UniProtKB/TrEMBL annotation:
Topological type in the membrane: Multi-pass membrane protein
Native organism taxonomy: Bacteria, Candidatus Doudnaibacteriota
Family: Belongs to the OXA1/ALB3/YidC family.
Record protein name field: Membrane insertase YidC/Oxa/ALB C-terminal domain-containing protein
InterPro entries named in the record: YidC/ALB3/OXA1/COX18, YidC/Oxa/ALB_C, YidC_ALB_C
Alphabetized NCBIfam families for the sequence: yidC_oxa1_cterm
Single GO BP term: protein insertion into membrane
Record PANTHER family: CYTOCHROME C OXIDASE ASSEMBLY PROTEIN COX18, MITOCHONDRIAL (PTHR12428:SF65), OXA1 (PTHR12428)
Cellular component, GO annotation: plasma membrane
């Protein structure tokens, strides 16, 4: 965990405070937005690869359904035929997940950084060239307190999560016999936003703001990639 802190958490915390110091009015909310957008831009290539892999898998789904139906009574043959199909089409079924796993440590580090910044827990963490602010202004735009929970921001976070889930969900095939996959898609689309609201309303509003920004940015990225590549 010490390596994780040195390589990710501490540099991101210093970036947050550096941006906070140079912003007019020293607004922690604006600093959180700036750092979140910067990190999402850095992660764009990874996100693009993940979305491309998801689209390729979705296009091949009808054929995969045929394989499942053909070998429904022989799981071993079904697995073998599926793997051969992936190989023939040069598809790695894990390729849509691996880029997201790469992003995960960075997003976890951001969560820790924003929490530390909102609580003013920065003593001994700043580099010599980053000035320690006299106070941490946690009022976003002068009126929204980010250090305490906000149900409104939690609700917006849940709504943005719902929009992203709808965009990410593969088209439902009513003729598909894979009821488990359809059920999982429904759960991700409708249950995850509710869970997001429940969790976010118990966290500092600054973390809800971070979640809103990163989700909206992801929605924008996905819209752009889908529009560009069809």
């Amino acid at each position: 965990m010490e390596i994780f802190h040195i390589l990710l958490t501490q540099p991101l915390l210093n970036l947050l405070i550096f941006i906070y110091n140079i912003l007019p009015g020293q607004d922690m909310g604006l600093a959180i937005i700036a750092v979140t957008i910067l990190v999402r831009i850095i992660l764009y290539p990874s996100f693009q690869k993940s979305l491309k892999a998801q689209k390729e898998l979705a296009a091949l789904q009808p054929k995969l359904e045929e394989i499942k139906e053909k070998y429904k009574n022989d799981k071993e043959a079904q697995t073998k035929a599926t793997l051969e199909f992936y190989k023939a089409n040069k598809i790695n079924p894990l390729s849509s997940c691996l880029p997201l796993l790469v992003q995960l440590p960075l997003l976890i580090a951001l969560y820790s950084v924003f929490r530390s910044g909102l609580e003013g827990q920065i003593s001994g963490e700043l580099y010599s060239f980053v000035q320690t602010p006299a106070v941490i202004n946690t009022r976003f735009l002068g009126f929204l307190e980010l250090a305490t929970p906000s149900f409104v921001l939690a609700l917006i976070a849940g709504m943005s999560q719902f929009v992203q889930s709808k965009m990410m969900a593969p088209p439902r095939n009513k003729d598909s016999k894979d009821k488990t996959a359809n059920m999982m898609t429904l759960q991700l689309t409708y249950v995850m936003p509710i869970i997001t609201v429940i969790i976010a309303q118990g966290l500092p509003a600054g973390l809800s703001l971070y979640w809103i920004v990163t989700t909206l940015f992801a929605i924008g990225q996905q819209w752009y990639i889908m529009r560009r590549h069809g």
